[in-house]
Amino acid sequence: MRQTERFKVEGPNSLWQLYQTVPFFKVMKNFVVIQLARYTPILPVKNWFYRTFLGMRVGKQTSFALMVMVDLMFPERITVGNNSIIGYNTTVLTHEYLIKEYRLGHVTIGDEVMIGANCTILPGVTIGDGAIVAAGTVVSKDIPAYAFAKGNPVMITETKIDGE
Question: Mind listing the UniProt keywords for this protein, alphabetically (predicted)?
Fold first, then answer.
């Protein structure tokens, strides 16, 4: 089960009320920083953008591939451990805007995690140390350490008990 906080809204759908939940200038700043980072080929600079301007916790030697899209509204809720790889065009979300509510959740990605290209990581999930997430996976629940996960909906097809 994903760990999210739920906030009810009255009136129009919650996305229509976006700027009542997050300041406009925060969204604009985040948009500019994320777009610069998405196209930056220099990994230490990309991580510096994420840490300095977005408040993300990013471990040493972690690699965000080209075109990774981190959450625009609440990127400070993202933590990535050391020596992990986030694959090309992956999206990491910490929010969900629904009709009658919006939800916020932290995303925690452990050390030495490999996330393939074109994945979507939903709010409120934890991906354990050493896990491998296949390309195209929608991560809608926690992935244990040293597990192999794939598909939509995500399925854990293998675990490595000893972590090797």
Answer: Transferase
pTM above 0.85, yes or no: yes
Options 2.110.10.10, 2.160.10.10, 2.40.50.140, 2.30.130.10; CATH for 5-159 is: 2.160.10.10
What's the pLDDT at 157? Answer: 86
Burial (Cβ within 10 Å: 0-12, 13-18, ≥19) of residue 12: exposed
Structure token pair of residue 85: 């790889």
Residue 3, number of CB atoms within 10 A of its CB = 12
pLDDT tens for 11-23 read 999 999 999 999 9
Kindly state the tokens that stand for 89: 């065009």
What beta strand segments (E) does 69-119 contain? Answer: 69-70, 78-80, 85-86, 91-92, 95-97, 101-104, 107-109, 114-115
